[in-house]
Amino acid sequence: MHTLRVDSDETLTPTYAGRSFSHDIPKFVLPPKGLASDAAYQLVHDELNLDGNPALNLASFVTSWMEPHADLLAAETLAKNLIDQDEYPQSEVIHERVVTITGRLFHAPPGGRATGTATIGSSEAIMLAMLAHKRSWQRRREAAGEPTERPNMVLGADVHTCWEKFARYFEVEARVAPMAEDRFTIGAEQVEPLLDERTIGVAGLLGTTFTGQSDDLTSIDALLQRIERERGLRIPLHVDAASGGFIVPFARPEERWDFRLPSVRSINVSNHKFGLVYPGMGTVVFRDAGDLPEELVFHINYLGGDMPNYSLNFSRPSSSVILQYFAFLRLGREGYTQIVQSMLANSHALARRLAAIDGLAVITDGSEFPVVAARATEPELDLFALSRLLRERGWIVPAYTLPADAEHVTVLRMVVKENFSRDMVDMLGSDVAASMHALRSKADRRPGKVRRRPHC
Ligand SMILES: *Cc1c(COP(=O)(O)O)cnc(C)c1O
Predict the structure, then answer these.
(1) Does 140 lie in the same domain as 222?
(2) CA distance linking residue 172 with residue 72, whole number of Å
(3) pLDDT digits (tens, 9 = 90+) for 380-438
(4) Does residue 225 contact residue 245 with C-beta atoms inside 8 Å?
């Protein structure tokens, strides 16, 4: 009988190997023989135990829980390829509805369907929006007999990495407005000096990844309108509402950040953040059809019928679009409002807990956005070490440095999602306090260190 190797780096060796496996299972090459389905399931399932617990992951904005009926729908629709619009016409009808509902939520001009598409996330959505603005800029320049090289875009250092990705992949100069010691967002004042006739667009953020604050979108909008009046330059504002797009419309519906601002020509949102669906879902919407040059839309007929398509990917499961539709119907405006209000109440409570801890100062108090960011009040307090201590208790709470020119500021950031209850707020608050206490005692015990004040 074949004996299993039990001490190899090259093969998988679960402790119950002898019961289910009769041959080695290589890690890095395709196994020559397969396994029984239940054995394969158990093996993969157990390997994944090494992942963190999504319910304790405060690092990510991405939805980690949906209702059982959503799980059912997900399983039913994973096998349908969203791109096969002719084969799955109703999925395409639902896709259009989801995009239009999202556009209307952002006050796209009424009438007809919104122009836009579902994407894998905000990164793809942002690339599609900016590619459209780049092409529109090129066409306007050509029509005016002006050169079309060296396009640029203006953004703050508070943007997500996907913006730098767009700049590098699609060859657009990124003109980045830096942060300051006490300012982690941008407004018209930072944007204006960077604009010129080669600017294809300005990025404004509704909720930054770093602190959860928003750029001053109304001042940027007013600036762009003035520039158009005074210099005849038509510069679109793209709002990156990846995390804020499903918060602000429910928390503060009167706040004007969307298509109500005349310069806003496109918006992206991550439905897999506060749209409350599992990862793999974002949306880009344009103000109107004229903002998406027809030459970028592909018409595909080899799957039968004529299918307009604007995307970077081709195939993808339809499940995440279907899940967004489910969540829209399940929750309605009232349901989203309730969930957003409860997330904000919990994040505000967490911020109050943290503010009371000696050595921590809260940057965002969680009352406007379900994100709490805190910095250390004493330079010798190492928030990276605090983050590691919290990890020992199971909490995933990242520490990181802010972007240029605030890179000397280290923050601890917590995203409070729907599944994060008030009870968990209290437990996390106590664990942060205890870890901070341990950290400070250690700092105080360092040789040569004079104990500044007692803390008990
Ligand atoms: C999360 C995030 C992104 C990227 O979104 P994905 O959906 O993960 O691609 C972009 N911008 C901001 C502000 C974000 O918070």
Answers:
(1) yes
(2) 43
(3) 889 999 999 999 998 999 998 888 788 888 899 999 999 899 999 999 999 999 999 99
(4) no
For residue 440, what are the domain limits?
334-444
Closest CA to 315 of 80, 132, 99, 128: 80
CB contact at 8 A, 94 and 327: no
Let me know if residue 368 belongs to a domain: yes
Q: Helix or strand or coil: residue 11?
A: strand
Q: How far apart are the first and last CA of the chain?
A: 65
> Of 307, 327, 347, which one is at a domain's C-terminal end?
327
Q: Report CA Rg, the chain.
A: 25
**Sheet containing 152-156: order of strands:** 115-119, 282-286, 264-269, 237-240, 199-205, 152-156, 173-177
C-alpha angle 218/222/228, rounded to 5°? 145
Distance 176 CA to ligand 1 centre (A): 18
Check if 311 has its Cβ closer than 6 Å to any atom of ligand 1.
no
Residues 43-75 pLDDT 10s: 899 889 888 888 888 889 999 999 999 999 999
Pairing of strands 25-26, 282-286: unpaired
Question: Best substitution site from 61, 120, 128, 162 to test ligand 1's pocket, by max atoms within 8 Å of Cβ?
Answer: 162
Contact (Cβ atoms closer than 8 angstroms) between residue 308 and residue 297: yes
Question: Are the CB atoms for 114 and 102 separated by under 8 Å?
Answer: yes
Reduce the DSSP state of residue 40 to 3 states and report it: helix
| Residue 393: CATH number of its domain | 3.90.1150.160
Pocket lining: 205 vs ligand 1, CB cutoff 6 Å: yes
Measured in degrees and rounded to the nearest 5, phi and psi for residue 230 equal: -85, -40
Q: If we measure between CA atoms, which residue out of 85, 101, 94 comes closest to residue 308?
A: 85
Residue 307 sits in the same domain as residue 403:
no
pTM across the whole model: 0.92
- Return the residue whose CA atom lies nearest to atom 15 of ligand 1: 209
Tokens of 433: 């306090």
Q: Do 187 and 307 belong to one domain? A: yes
C-alpha torsion angle, residues 256, 258, 263, 267 (rounded to 10) = 160
Same domain, 235 and 109: yes
User: Based on the domain organization, do 439 and 399 belong to the same domain?
Assistant: yes
Q: Are residues 88 and 43 in the same domain?
A: no
